[in-house]
Specification:
Elements (H helix, E strand, L loop, with lengths): L1 H14 L12 E2 H7 L3 E4 L2 E4 L2 H10 L12 H17 L6 H21 L12 H14 L9 H12 L44 H10 L5 H13 L8 E2 L5 H14 L4 H4 L1 H17 L6 H13 L7 H4 L2 E2 L6 E2 L10 H13 L7 H17 L31 E2 L3 H19 L8 H20 L11 H14 L9 H16 L12 E2 L3 E2 L2 H13 L17 H6 L1 H4 L10 H12 L2 H11 L9 H16 L6 H23 L6 H9 L34 H19 L2 H4 L3 H30 L13 H6 L1 H5 L2 H12 L7 H25 L1 H7 L16 H27 L1 H27 L10
Antiparallel strand pairs: 1-4, 2-3, 5-6, 7-8, 8-9
Helix pairs in contact: 1-10, 1-12, 1-21, 2-3, 2-4, 2-8, 4-5, 4-6, 8-9, 10-13, 10-21, 12-13, 13-15, 15-16, 15-17, 16-17, 16-18, 17-18, 17-19, 18-19, 18-24, 19-20, 19-21, 24-26, 25-27, 26-27, 26-38, 27-34, 28-31, 31-34, 34-35, 34-38, 35-37, 35-38, 37-38
């Protein structure tokens, strides 16, 4: 049944191709329909409406609230309603004037409410051309007596002015190709339409019914070719004669390449799809490539190369290499010359195309570039990845052809699942090529990063699958997720959770199966000027999702399985005991553990960069530190990218290493030397940053040097100072620290000093406790317990230091005002106090054996019989204060960026809580102190 349906789909595409106008299945647009409904034509001595059925459709689609809702996006509603009101105004004066006036009045009131609720600032992402289209509609409505003012209008006009400052409309008269041609309705009254006829292609203005309508209404001489194009779109577009038209027609190359490639990539064979139909499609694509000198549009070129190679027609991808922007801060495939923001989906499609081409081995450097770019994009903005509002390149040389009548000038997607699917396809294509030996010189770090990103995408998708098996309750989105998960599931690192993945895929296919034989309106997930759907694409993704299966990976990919994976998975037993994960499924814990294992080697490398040497504790902490961050991130919906996660893992690991270094090396100094070191902490920031090579490091303990009170050789203190100085300096010059606001850099320096000072102070009081006959209660405590928890003891946990570094990482998203800094410090102190209490509870026996000062050694606990209950009570108070500070900070930050900071802080708090809960279950601190 699947094969028959796929063959029928492809055969329909091939059969439906018009020799002049191509093919297109994009759904109808109220916006474009409104524009063509305004066209009049003089016939004899009469002026007639060219498309009266279009007005009828507009009237039928008006909602009872007065507006034209479309498919629900805010900008859709505004553009649809504004264009429809303008169309009704143009038709006033006819026999039904009273009805039209009532409709216009209700629609205007509705639009006024929508505009007043429309929020806009300089960072708002708008659909393609919105900032040009809406101001013109408002201007034209004003001429009809409808004046609309709203808070966002000033910003809208400002954004339009900024765009127009970069536009040379007169260049259009010289034959210069531009995306402006797709939206000429935005320049009514601003350009001489009589001088634009040279830009017609098969009668259209860059495949846009609205733009073509504006041209036809505003040129002084009637253009039969433009009329013929619009008549064809009305009859053969998705409206099928109803009067409705799509936002773009035709979309031949877009639909040919997306449909055929999607089916062939996911289990269908050429024979399944019909060789005769594929031959027709192939001939059309090859002819287009030849006419375009190897190009048929940015995404269509990449997808076209992939399609032809999948169809068995070897097609090199060398033309794509010319699209690489190597001058950019981060090299990538550019969509068009002079673009401001790179397109993620374009880079995904180019990567997939390169890997599918017969000349892939000749472009290892470009494939590496694309994989790095995509991984970095995911690592800096996971889950929320959205593609740019893609627009048509300004054609140059051989690109200046008549291709625009057959490919989409731009198209974007509402769902983040779509770029996730494309990213999966691109990265997995690169990994597969590496595994097959096609890319033998691909750097290991790129390969590992790609595997990590693939796992993170899979983890995110699996988490947000609904109980009915779907994603977002939508057929097409569910198909994207199934295709992505199936592709990732071929990785050998996925094997431990394969049964869970198979169950998830079966549920998803069960959801999709019920729609296989249903002729439903496609979901409006794609974005042009307004949102749209495509029946052909929707059907292709549905069939591909039902057909795809997990295929075996090349044997070489087995090298990517971390050697510690099996041991890491065994730790699930410990984590399932923690309250935080009591309601988290075993599969989710396992997914986080697998992802965590992929960080271990990079974490070790980063630590070794700071302090070379060998660890004396078998790196046990490296086995669970990644999980605390990965799992915390997963619990909060993965707001933090891998870059931030890795940096925080490094700080967490170094905190353990510093603790070990202090206990195994610094502790060997006599008290007077420790006091001297304590007094000279400031000087450590100014010592040479070069790490010692034959001296103690955080990864090598110093041999014991006799009795603790015997003065050590002079070099020992110097080498300890050099090691600590290297630690301080390395942290201080981290790139994200150097780019943080000065106040955050200054605070970090203070926290670094306080952190080491806390360690030395703790040592001094440990020594004092060891000299007491009574080892249970400090005779001369340094302060009340409250102060100890919020200063020395809390700082000793490295929590305040970590949160200071975390602020530097998140500094692009907030302004460090005095109140914000105060709240961050409050959060830091309450959280570190909680961690210290949990730590002290878990290490109570060890601390007694080693004479380490514990919270229970303070006089407040003297005579207490319910120590654990009292300590948990104190932790509860600190938790309430922490929650209060978090709520206050959320209020203070506000906005979208503030939301990112708070989500990140949520991960930070959860990660800290994992440590605390682990300490209660098991003392995680290595017993390295010599007794």
């Amino acid at each position: 049944m699947l094969i028959d349906a796929a063959a029928e789909l492809v055969e329909g595409l091939a059969r439906g191709h018009h020799p002049t106008y191509g093919v297109g299945s994009m759904t109808c647009s109220i916006y474009d329909t409104a524009w063509i409904s305004m066209i009049t034509k003089v016939v004899g001595d009469q002026t007639e409406w060219l498309f009266p059925s279009s007005l009828t459709l507009i009237l039928d689609q008006q909602h009872e609230n007065g507006g034209w809702i479309g498919h629900g996006t805010e900008t859709d509603v505004i553009l649809n309603t504004a264009a429809a009101i303008l169309a009704l105004c143009k038709h006033r004066g006819e026999s039904n004037t009273a009805d039209l006036n009532d409709r216009i009045s209700r629609a205007t009131q509705f639009l006024d409410r929508e505009l007043k609720a429309f929020w806009l600032d300089a960072s708002t992402t708008l659909p393609v051309g919105f900032e040009m289209l809406l101001p013109k509609l408002l201007q034209l409505l004003a001429k009809e007596g409808i004046n609309l003012e709203f808070p966002a209008r000033a910003m809208l006009e400002k954004i339009r002015a900024m765009k127009m400052a970069r536009v040379r409309l007169d260049k259009l008269y010289e034959g210069h190709k531009s995306t402006l041609l797709h939206s000429l309705e935005a320049f009514v009254g601003d350009v001489d339409f009589d001088r634009l006829s040279q830009h017609k292609q098969m009668g259209s203005m860059m495949a846009s019914p609205a733009s073509t309508a504006a041209y036809l209404m505003n040129c002084s001489t009637w253009d039969d070719e433009a009329e013929a194009y619009l008549q064809h779109v009305v009859l053969y577009g998705a409206g099928h004669g109803s009067g409705g038209v799509p936002s773009a027609f035709p979309s031949t190359y877009f639909e040919y390449t997306w449909v055929v490639a999607t089916l062939l990539e996911n289990g269908f064979t050429r024979e399944d799809l019909g060789t005769e139909s594929l031959e027709k499609i192939g001939q059309t694509l090859e002819g287009a490539f030849e006419a375009g000198s190897g190009f048929i549009g940015f995404d269509d070129t990449a997808k076209g190369i992939t399609t032809l190679n999948l169809m068995g027609s070897p097609t090199p991808a060398s033309k794509l290499v010319t699209l690489v922007d190597r001058k950019a801060k981060e090299a990538h495939f550019r969509t068009y010359a002079g673009e401001r923001d790179a397109s993620i989906t374009t880079n995904c499609n180019c990567l997939t195309s390169l890997c599918a081409s017969p000349d892939a081995s000749q472009h290892v450097d470009v494939i590496e570039m694309a994989m790095r770019y995509l991984c970095n994009k995911w690592n800096t903005e996971p889950v929320g990845i959205r593609d740019k509002w893609v627009s048509l390149p300004c054609f140059q040389n051989s690109l200046d052809t008549n291709r625009s009548a057959n490919w989409l000038p731009w198209s974007q997607h509402l769902s983040s699942l779509y770029p996730m699917m494309l990213m999966t396809q691109g990265l997995m294509s690169g990994l597969d090529s590496w595994g097959r030996g096609v890319l033998p010189n691909l750097p290991t770090e790129v390969v590992v990063d790609a595997v990590t990103v693939a796992h993170q995408i899979m983890g995110h998708l699996l988490r947000f699958q609904r109980d009915d098996g779907s994603w977002d309750g939508e057929r097409e989105c569910t198909a994207y997720a199934v295709i992505a998960i199936t592709r990732i599931a071929s990785l050998p690192t996925v094997k431990p959770i394969l049964s869970h993945i198979n169950a998830a895929l079966e549920r998803a296919k069960g959801f999709l199966r019920q729609y296989l034989n249903c002729d439903l309106e496609p979901e409006h997930l794609w974005i042009e000027k307004v949102t749209y759907g495509s029946r052909n694409l929707s059907q292709a993704f549905l069939l591909a999702a039902m057909k795809c299966t997990i295929l075996p990976a090349p044997p070489r990919l087995q090298e990517l399985v971390p050697p510690n994976l099996e041991a890491t998975l065994k730790s699930a037993k410990l984590f399932r005991q923690l309250p935080m994960f009591s309601e988290v499924s075993t599969s989710r814990i396992d997914i986080s553990l697998i992802e965590s294992s992929l960080f271990v080697s990079r974490l070790r490398e980063r630590c070794l960069e700071i302090f070379p040497g060998r660890t004396a504790t078998k790196e046990k902490h490296l086995a669970y530190i990644p999980f605390t961050w990965v799992a915390g991130n997963e619990l909060h919906g993965r707001p933090l990218g891998s870059h931030i996660l890795l940096e925080m893992m490094v700080i967490s690991a170094l905190a353990y290493q510093v603790d070990e270094f202090i206990e195994t090396s610094v502790s060997q100094l006599p008290p007077e030397a420790i006091a001297r070191l304590h007094s000279e902490l400031d000087t450590l920031f100014h010592l040479p940053a070069t790490p010692p090579t034959t001296t103690p490091s955080l990864f090598s303990s110093i041999p014991l040097l006799g009795n603790l009170f015997t003065p050590p050789p002079t070099p020992l203190l110097a080498t300890i100072k050099q090691t600590l100085s290297h630690f301080l300096t390395t942290i201080s010059v981290l790139p994200y620290v150097q780019t943080a606001p000065p106040i955050l850099q200054s605070n970090l320096r203070l926290q670094l000093k306080a952190y080491l000072s806390a360690h030395l102070t703790q040592m001094e009081y440990n020594h004092a406790l060891s000299l007491q006959p009574n080892k249970h209660t400090l005779v001369s405590p340094p302060s009340p317990l409250y102060d100890w928890l919020h200063t020395t003891s809390g700082t000793h946990t490295a929590g305040p230091l970590a949160i200071s570094l975390f602020q530097c990482l998140l500094s692009p998203f907030f302004i460090p005002t005095p109140k914000v800094q105060h709240l961050f410090n409050s959060i830091s102190r309450h959280l570190s106090a909680i961690c210290r209490i949990y730590n002290d509870l878990g290490s109570l026996n060890r601390d007694r054996e080693e004479n380490n000062v514990n919270a229970v050694n303070f006089p407040e606990f003297e005579g207490a019989v319910d120590i654990k209950e009292q300590m948990m009570g104190i932790a509860g108070v600190e938790r309430k204060m922490l929650d209060l500070a978090l709520k206050e900070l959320e209020k203070e930050l506000g906005g979208t960026k503030g939301g990112k900071v708070m989500k990140g802080l949520g991960v930070f708090v959860s990660s800290a809580d994992v440590y605390g809960e682990m300490y209660v279950v098991r003392d995680m601190t290595p017993r390295v102190k010599q007794t």
